[in-house]
Amino acid sequence: MTIAADFTGLWVTDDGHIRHELLANGRYVEARGTRERAYEGRYEITGTHIEYWDDTGFTADGDFVGGILYHAGMVLRRR
Description:
InterPro entries: Atu4866-like_sf (IPR038646), Uncharacterised_Atu4866 (IPR020955). The chain has 79 residues and is mainly beta.
C-alpha cells in the first residue's frame, strides 16, 4: 500500500524550471522559473495517482511511476 506521505517533498523538472513542493498537510506550491509561488492549492493522492486543485480553480492530475511524477506532459523527479 502506498501512502501520500511517500510522495511529499520537492519534485523538479530536469531543467529546474518547474518545481512542485508537495507539503505533508495536503497543500502544494508550484514554482515556475523565477516565480516562486506561481500556483498554490491542495492535492490528494490515491495509490500512485495525484489530483491537484489550484486555489484559482484550475485542476490537473498526474501519476507517479518508478520514482518519477508524470504531470501535464512534464516529467518531474524528486529532490
